[in-house]
């Protein structure tokens, strides 16, 4: 059995900054740190070089991807529909500091971004990102589709309910207000926008991925 490839984590902004050898060590620096900046690298040298450089030169940069699916499987899946937007969320901890965004699938140009929110979860962010995308496309009368890599968020949107087990607190009050607004929007609006599962195994990380891990 092939072991998991070693990664090194650069933290530009966190409780402590520097290069860390495990995700657990990295997570300890970014958990509950508003505006944390971090990213993984395959070698210590790359991580150290990045730490001395500007975070903006690394965030969202695509990683080299080669699908492990065979030719027949790839042909069956096909290529992404570029008449679309892709949405994703990132959370440093569960719960932790969460943000979400939507981008143009082809160009990766950011269309919207929200956060960071305190004491959020990835699933909540994915849910909000889809609803934000639906509202954006309806407002602009666009026929584009939405890609997401979260089946959980897709089911929540279909049910018009953010079925999170997260408890409301003083810190995430604004986040729960946003959830309620999203649920009300789903109740009051109709839409024809297809919400489609992003085929990560065939295409790599979704274009809206924050590119940190």
From TrEMBL:
Organism, scientific name: Flavobacterium sediminis
The EC number(s) this enzyme carries: 3.1.26.4
Binding site for Mg(2+) 2: 126, 149
Compartments, as annotated in UniProt: Cytoplasm
Reaction catalysis annotation: Endonucleolytic cleavage to 5'-phosphomonoester
Cofactor(s) the protein requires to work: Mn(2+); Mg(2+)
Job of this protein: Endonuclease that specifically degrades the RNA of RNA-DNA hybrids.
Lineage: Bacteria, Pseudomonadati, Bacteroidota, Flavobacteriia, Flavobacteriales
Protein name (record): Ribonuclease H
Domain of life (superkingdom): Bacteria
Sequence similarity: Belongs to the RNase H family.
Primary localisation category: cytoplasm
């Amino acid at each position: 059995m092939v072991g998991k490839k070693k990664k090194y984590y650069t933290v530009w902004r966190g409780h402590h900054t520097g290069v860390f050898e495990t995700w657990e060590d990295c997570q300890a620096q970014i958990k509950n740190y508003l505006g944390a900046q971090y990213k993984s690298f395959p070698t210590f040298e790359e991580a150290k070089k990045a730490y001395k450089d500007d975070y903006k030169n690394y965030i969202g940069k695509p990683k080299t991807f080669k699908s492990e699916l065979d030719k027949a499987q790839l042909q069956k899946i096909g290529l992404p529909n570029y008449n679309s937007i892709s949405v994703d969320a990132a959370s440093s901890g569960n719960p932790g500091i969460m943000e979400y965004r939507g981008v143009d699938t082809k160009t990766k140009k950011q269309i919207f971004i929200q956060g960071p929110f305190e004491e959020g979860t990835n699933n909540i962010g994915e849910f909000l990102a889809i609803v934000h995308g639906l509202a954006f496309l309806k407002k602009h009368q666009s026929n584009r589709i939405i890609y997401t890599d979260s089946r959980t968020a897709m089911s929540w949107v279909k049910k018009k309910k953010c079925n999170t087990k997260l408890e409301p607190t003083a810190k995430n009050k604004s986040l729960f207000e946003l959830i309620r607004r999203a649920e009300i929007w789903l109740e009051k609006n109709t839409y024809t926008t297809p919400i489609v599962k992003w085929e990560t195994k065939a295409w790599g990380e979704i274009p809206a991925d924050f590119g940190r891990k």
